[in-house]
Amino acid sequence: MAEAAHRGGALIGKTVAMGAAASSTPRVLIIGGGFGGVFAARRLAKAPVQVTILDRNTSNLFQPLLYQCATGILSEGQITLPLRSLVRRYRNCTVLQGEAVALNAETKVVSARRPDGSTYELAYDYLIVAAGMRQSYFGNDRFAEFAPGMKTLDDALEIRRRIYGAFEMAESLPTPAERKDWLTFAVVGAGPTGVELAGQIRELALKTIAKEFTHIDPTEARVLLFDGVDAPLQVFGEALSARAVRDLEGLGVELHMGVLVVDVDARGLTAKSRSDGRHERFAARTVLWTAGVEAVPFVKVVAEALGVSQDRAGRIAVEEDLTVPGHPDVWVLGDIMALNGLPGVAEVALQGGLHAGGQIRRLVEGRAKPEERFRYRDLGSAAYISRFKAVVHVGRFKLSGFLAWLIWGFVHLAFLASHRHRASTVTSWMFNLARGHRTERAYPEALEGRRSSVPESP
Ligand SMILES: Cc1cc2nc3c(=O)[nH]c(=O)nc-3n(C[C@H](O)[C@H](O)[C@H](O)COP(=O)(O)OP(=O)(O)OC[C@H]3O[C@@H](n4cnc5c(N)ncnc54)[C@H](O)[C@@H]3O)c2cc1C
């Protein structure tokens, strides 16, 4: 506690409040230890401020490789870094675990809930909100029970459990007819995450576990990919999207484009054609959802407390300097900010964090230009399709195939949290590429609070 008071100083409590109040050092509270929050803290590391990162989790998560954790290539430790370890060299920064649940913009206090349900309060002079998005089921939240999303480490482990667990179920069922639905995997959403996941399921069936079973042939596993748009990876443009179609079909992924998934249950899903309105039922014991995102609930709390509105996905529109209109002491950044149509990608969050941190530093050092504009440098985007196949879009350049796959690999390695992460990830990738190995196939029997579709009898 004394350490928290010394380094962060924002915690309000019997012991610490005096220390915090007595200190004249400005307090910066960062909500969310994702890309945006961590890069803001990094930019503030040498500033004369006390920084507190508040996160409901204890680790920074590298979401772009979540699907590799879900499909057994990478471990949880390879795609996460404890926030405490990450900021240990920032002498003015402390980390607190808790979920932000309330904001009083007048008294400048945020309330946070500990994992045991109790609450505590944090005071700030400057507030950075970088709380990210969660999966959206477009108003059909009941689908979540049957079709996990892909946003958190829990999601990845749940997906791993469902994928490998489905093969195990099929292996012990007596007839091919009974096995068929367990060997059918439906992925909803044909953006980068859905494409990556669909490709990986086919790959692991064709390579990793192809010869491990006695009663089933894993290579017969069907992977169905659904989306309301006309083609996968549409954001990458027509040419790369067409390439993705070829590569996915070559891998054996069955594309169901131009359909809306209107119902999901434990035994499959129903899709509605956008052209003729026809409904079609698909039996699949594993349904995975990557179709949409919406702001986490705390963003609504922030919008209400600050008197601003949210867009359809729950984002808050910010000024050109990333502050909230009328609140020059509050920055909203990363996936939850709406500014000039910028996409919800890591680079936007990371650069936004650096910008907000830099702006606060200049403010407290008395050298800020008023309302300094955020200038985003677009470094492009990439999506993995399958072994040696990816698509990359950088400015006017569009690449696909092996070269794109190499670029994809280098970019992802560059963004990993440490040399240790890079070295171990390269090793795992090499084993996977050479022999199809996936060493991270263990999963908890059932994650707390989730309905299990695996142990159920058919
Ligand atoms: C599966 C997947 C693949 C992706 N692939 C790519 C890719 O290839 N390239 C790319 O550029 N981008 C990719 N992205 C997007 C990228 O990961 C995000 O744009 C980026 O993580 C956004 O950063 P952020 O800081 O805004 O939010 P996040 O990184 O989501 O961090 C938000 C943090 O806030 C915390 N939090 C949430 N609510 C609260 C609360 N109430 N109180 C306290 N803490 C809270 C969360 O625990 C989390 O740590 C991918 C995303 C996903 C899900």
What does this structure look like?
This protein is α/β, with parallel strands linked by helices. The chain has two domains: 2-56 and 98-135 and 294-364, FAD/NAD(P)-binding domain (3-Layer(bba) Sandwich); 141-291 and 381-435, FAD/NAD(P)-binding domain (3-Layer(bba) Sandwich), CATH 3.50.50.100. Helices cover 33% and strands 26% of the residues. The chain has helices at residues 2-7, 16-22, 35-44, 66-70, 83-86, 153-172, 176-182, 192-208, 238-251, 298-306, 346-364, 402-415, 419-435; strands spanning 11-12, 27-31, 50-55, 59-61, 80-82, 93-97, 99-104, 109-113, 119-123, 126-129, 133-135, 184-188, 222-227, 253-257, 259-265, 268-273, 279-283, 286-289, 293-295, 316-317, 323-324, 327-332, 337-338, 381-386, 389-394, 397-401. The model is unreliable at 1-9, 14-22 and 451-458 (pLDDT under 50). Bound molecules: flavin-adenine dinucleotide (FAD). The site of flavin-adenine dinucleotide has 33 residues, from helix 3, strand 3, helix 4, strand 7 and helix 8. Flavin-adenine dinucleotide (FAD) is lined by residues 31-37, 54-57, 63-64, 66-67, 99-100, 130-132, 150-151, 192-193, 296, 298, 334-335, 344-347, 349.
